[in-house]
């Protein structure tokens, strides 16, 4: 995987394919570029740390309403199904504003481990 953060995202985007079927459609993602795939569930009123990653970009698909996303200087409440690209080294976080847990599917783009987290702010005292 290239080390250029814009190339990481552009290469990933080029690999996303959409196929229309009589019953609807499906989107497939370039899983060979993914280092990790997970579902993040945020409890009502809780917030992930404001963080960035040195070695990976992330691609998020919002699964539920009720989230607030911070990416760089932008803060918004995404729609269910919204796709979000988080470039390497870009500060980001999730917050659950709703009354039910809310989820995001996260795909890592780039060679990284769970420990590749630089926390800028954290409500739980982690560094």
TrEMBL record:
Pfam families: MannoseP_isomer. GO terms for molecular function: mannose-1-phosphate guanylyltransferase (GTP) activity. It comes from marine sediment metagenome. Residues 17-122 form the Mannose-6-phosphate isomerase type II C-terminal domain. GO terms for biological process: GDP-mannose biosynthetic process; polysaccharide metabolic process. This is Mannose-6-phosphate isomerase type II C-terminal domain-containing protein. Gene3D superfamilies: Jelly Rolls (2.60.120.10).
């Amino acid at each position: 995987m290239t080390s250029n953060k814009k190339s990481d995202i552009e290469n990933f985007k080029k690999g996303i394919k959409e196929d229309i079927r009589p019953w609807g459609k499906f989107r497939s993602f370039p899983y060979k570029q993914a280092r990790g795939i997970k579902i993040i569930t945020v409890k009502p009123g809780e917030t992930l740390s404001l963080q960035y990653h040195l070695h990976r970009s992330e691609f998020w698909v919002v699964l539920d309403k009720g989230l607030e996303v911070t990416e760089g200087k932008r803060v918004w409440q995404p729609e269910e199904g919204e796709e979000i690209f988080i470039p390497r080294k870009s500060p980001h976080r999730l917050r659950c504003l709703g009354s039910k847990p809310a989820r995001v599917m996260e795909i890592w783009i780039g060679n990284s481990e769970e420990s590749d987290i630089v926390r800028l702010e954290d409500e739980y005292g982690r560094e």
